[in-house]
Structure of Transporter:
Amino acid sequence: MSQREQWSSKLGFILAAAGSAIGLGAIWKFPYIAGQNGGGAFFLIFIIFTLILGLPLLLAEFIIGRSAQDNAVDSYRKIAPGTQWHWVGIIGMVTSFILLSFYSVIGGWIVVYLFKAIVGDLNGLNSDQYAVVFGETISDPMISVFVQLLFILMTIFVVSKGVQKGIERASAIMMPALFILFIILVIRAVTLDGAMEGIKFLLQPDFTKVKSQTILEAMGQSFFTLSVGVSVMVTYSSYLPKTQSLPRSAFSIVGMNIFIVLLAGLAIFPAVFSFNLEPGAGPVLLFNVLPTVFSQIPFGMFFFIAFLVLFLFAALTSAFSMLEIIVSVISKGEPTQRKKWAWIIGLAIFVCGIPSALSFGILGEITLFGKTIFDLADFAVSNVLLPIGSLLIAIFVPVKMKKSTLYEELKRGSSFKKGLFEIWYFLIRFVAPLLILAVMLDVLGVW
Ligand code: PFF
């Protein structure tokens, strides 16, 4: 195998891993799932899961990747030769495949909204009209599939060029810019008439709304927003030099992620209540609410376009990681094979994702267990495959790696205290497997 590529700088890795984590999950998915699950209580449970499950798992994936320095499947082979553990990586590839097949649908929605905003189709509309225009657009089969394809083509293009250099550099500007725009948006949203209702909805937990399903959704959401359970973070940290502090990277990614989730919630819910919209509107929530908030800001359309560009960038950096994990396994790190496989796999994902795109229009009537094809794909990934992947990783690390090796990895390049290590180890070894199992069994009605 030719020499493995590495990140061009320490910052490159953090930016790429944060780029994978921060995406549609925090900005688009969190508000709508929180909206469907009663708001505050969901938010609180999500934060708790992020801290006691997501963060330890993120560290676990970093350790696996950096110590094995190989792709998502061979890393497990290297650490546990002659066992079946590499299936964790294979499950991750399948998860990534399904994930990108519906993620690209929403990526396409951003593209189409961006186009509409630029050509002026959205000028002078009121909040109800935005929803109508948007609904008509995404139910059009040609448009929804075409923009999904565009989103996937952008992803293929970048991944086929190799470890996402250049993109690293761009995200050093794009991510902070996204934060700043979000802050402007939040300031406007929380000063709308009737905003308090929305703030309370997000920040005041009402535990009467919590069902087993809510807890599962919150857990799935915490894995989804951190990109854990798929071995994407194994892949990314495998390109990492040994000198980088893993805990510091993990803490900053989790911190940024929680912050952006909070901003997204504070931008959306005050506006939902102020304009009498429906918090449980589902996947279209963000797209119906945001233009209304922007229209209340001077030069709103300009800011809205800037926001969509940054949002698209955030979604793409997540999509890169999904395609990257599959391509890096199949091309075995051979630069000559990368391009071919990025195209083959990317286009296969597109074809498999078409039914998800159409489930907001002509295939909308087709449901299984009361869910459309899109919802079913999302449910399978967020609430089944991510928890299973995470559960297996939580079992793998303490069982197949020596405790002293784990401590060495976490200590490298940082002053990680033994006490903190013990807490992490306890969370990974006992809390994570038991809690994930308990939540999954609870939903199945086992107790
Ligand atoms: N973390 C991404 C987001 O929140 O949009 C989604 C994601 C990317 C999940 C990559 C899993 C993954 F492997």
